Amino acid sequence: MNRDQVAALKELMAQEFTALEFHLYLDTHPTDQRALMEYNEACRQLMVLKQRYQQCFGPLTFCETSGYPWQWIEEPWPWQISY
Amino acid sequence: MMYEMNSGLQLARAYVPSQVFTQRFSAMEGLSKGTIFPELYMPYRPRRY
């Protein structure tokens, strides 16, 4: 997997992790407005990154659209990538 | 009573103070440190006693 793709994947992982962290914090602090703003911003950025990544490299998760031919089975599989 | 049999040790009392979000790590730093909240970053450092 080329460097740019791995870098894009890491950026995606970091953004998703951020959204998850704020998501968990908000479960116990639903009125924390700043945390909610951070969460929403992280989700927005995540959606942009995902959309851009998938346009180039195909579906990331189940139920994402694919280019032709079917991209889901393309190498490398996640466990074959050295990050 | 039950716990007196443990050589007189008292039972522990657990408490979790409420976390207050103030600062955050950048996304990449948070991913590598395992939390986005600096106040929760507590790596176990080997210490010689």
Question: What's the structural blueprint in terms of helices and strands?
Answer:
The complex is a heterodimer of chains A (83) and B (49).
Chain A: H1 3-28, H2 33-57
Helix pairs in contact in A: 1-2
Chain B: H1 27-33
Strand fraction of chain A equals: under 5%
What's the number of structural domains of chain A?
1
Percent helix of chain A, as a range, is 55-70%
Low-confidence regions of chain A: none
Indicate the structural class of chain A: mainly alpha
Structural class of chain B: little secondary structure
The span between the termini of chain B is: 35 Å
What global shape of chain B is seen? elongated
- Mean pLDDT of chain B equals 89
- Report the sheet with the most strands of chain B, covering strand number, pairing sense and barrel closure: none
- Assembly status: heterodimer
Most strands sheet of chain A = none
Number of helices of chain B: 1
- Outline of chain A: elongated
- Percent of residues in beta strands of chain B: under 5%
Cα separation of the termini of chain A: 10 Å
SSE order of chain B, as H and E? H
The helical percent of chain B reads 10-25%
> Radius of gyration of chain B, rounded?
18 Å
